[in-house]
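Re: [help] complex structure
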Amino acid sequence: MDQQGLTRINTAWALFQGLLIEALPFLLIGVLISALARWLAPGGRWLRRLPAHPLLGPLSGAALGFALPACECGNVPVARRMLVGGAPLGTALGFLFAAPVLNPIVIASTWAAFPAQPWLLLARPIGAVLVALALSLLLRLIPEERLLQADVLAERQLNQPLSAVNLLQRRSGLVGIAATTATVQQESRQPMSRPPLQEVLSHGGREFMQLALLLVAGCVLAALVQTVLPRQWLLDLGSSPTGSILALMALSVVISVCSSVDAFLALSFAAQVTPGALLAFLLLGPVIDLKLAGLLGLLLRPRGLMLASVGAGLSVLLISQWINLWLL
Amino acid sequence: MAAVKSHALQAVALALWGLVLLRSSIDGRLDLLLRGVFHPLVSIAGLLLLVWAILLVLPLQGRRSKTAAPVVAEALTPRHWQSLVATALIAVLLIGLPPNPSFADLAQRRPGDDSSEAELAFVLPPAQRSLTDWVRLLRTQSDPRLYVGDPVRISGFVLPRNDGPPLLARLLVRCCLADGTPIGLPVRWPAGNPLPKADQWLQITGSMAVQQGLDGEELVVIPQRISVIPRPRRPLEP
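Output below.
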């Protein structure tokens, strides 16, 4: 291998380490919030009281972002806890897709990066809610059995009332096969009792390990693509209003940077792109990027992940086009 | 016994992740990878993971001595071992292979930083300005003639470019190396000498002058002294 190849591998390795080491603490925060919720509110009764209305559900899920400030990596374990706890699907999805933007840290960083552009301070959270609403409505078209991963679904059905899920679907109790994990069995026997701390630690540890390995895969992919693809190409593609939006959407997927700091990164090329493209960068990255793809795959089956990616892309494109029409 | 083993395996994996983060905090690699504000977060996360691992293992000692104590049943599956092996492999690679990025390679594949500060809080005397200070000052007061003859003492890495001699550059990082964007100043390299190598870190003492660039007049550093320096401990600029 020539010197340039070695140099590029070294750079890719450093990019990978940067992405991974920056994301791991946020992932840990998310897992800790999830474990705490499991310990404090076993069975997740409060989750099932969240609204299931097609519009109010995602809106209330999005609003939870203000209470649980974490970036997109940390949101995945919290959204998983909501899903397995029996929260209405739309509410959990609303949280998953909107909370990475709709939290105080991200709003403050957007304001700090763009103090002279108040429209962006409004457009980003409103856009994030609209994208989350669109995705929640879109993903409801797929039955839960085909949308959610098998282990999430099994645990979720145990935490849902029999009026919503029959015994065969619960796969435990009087009819059906035994539940897949001991954790699930224990929850089915004692849905209201607080689990022992040791069991919560073990469950959380397992979740962290699983998510960390998926995060590694996402970071490898993001680092390789960043090393191979010159970023200037993407910006050069975006000279037209629509082209600039598409280019910045692609850039946000590739860069895979945390939502709490992406506004500062956008500042570095804000003058080169249209306002709609700037908003597209700030809206799409927190919903889907290369680093997140593996983590989301823990919740959603490939079909759901594909639909969410396409739906997010289209809704961000529409919102950003409208912004360009308004501001250009 | 299976439950005990599965807890122990989990504890080892969590401890490995904790060690990776703590080792990164200690060996200085964070200065190469992340913006400073994130460093404490990485150290705290590493400590938390180690404590978590210890909490998982500690009660096992008690359980071994008091066999009557209930142990959460959990099957020890090949998946546990696969996760542990994968985690261990990644941890060994991360600890054993520290990052050694080429800033020039990275910067050549990135567009330059184009952000403009509305105003600078204060302006340092010319000889005390870093390369980043100069670039930011030029954005607020873009007339290069204002600075002709000012003394310069800056350091940075050599960034080759296609349309002219190399720049002396720095990487601005908002979060981690992945979002690094280059900024640079043109330098009138001494005639007759070979151009410096890409990625070489230099300290230049000299003065400012004006030259005709591609987009009109631009500020250029006229070196009086060029020294090769090792990469600084904190090479990234916020």
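The CA atoms of residues 50 and 87 of chain A lie 7 Å apart.
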